[in-house]
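Example 3.2
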Amino acid sequence: MPVYTFPLQTALDLRAHEEEQAQRRLAHAERLVTDRRRDLERSQARHDAILSTLRGGSGTGATVIIGEMEQAALVMSELRRRMAQQRKRLAEAERVRDLRRAELLEAARARRTLERLSERREEEYLREETLRERRELDEVAVTRHRAGAGLLSGLDNVA
């Protein structure tokens, strides 16, 4: 039996490639979200540590002099500004990640659709080939039967 070849195999290969690319873009977007979240968490931890120190939470009992408090206030202000920017960048990275996820789902859907079509066409092809082979075998059987019947009728005439 000849091997089935899907006529749209090139399109199916393209869809599979597009899905792989979408997976890579999603992975990159997820790494970016993770990095942005980690940056924000580090800034938040630094902010909290400075705030704890200013509130006397360091446990040393030492008092912070005015100059250090002013410096700490500047650092805290800068940290708050940076954290606001980091939150925006994180939100944007999450938005891009969600878009990439939607792209991946669409690419996978397109590939699966072509794969199902390929499977249905192959099943149809195999059914048709099986029917064709049965017809050929039936023809051979009929031809043999006729040939055998002819021999038998020839033997009846001889006897």
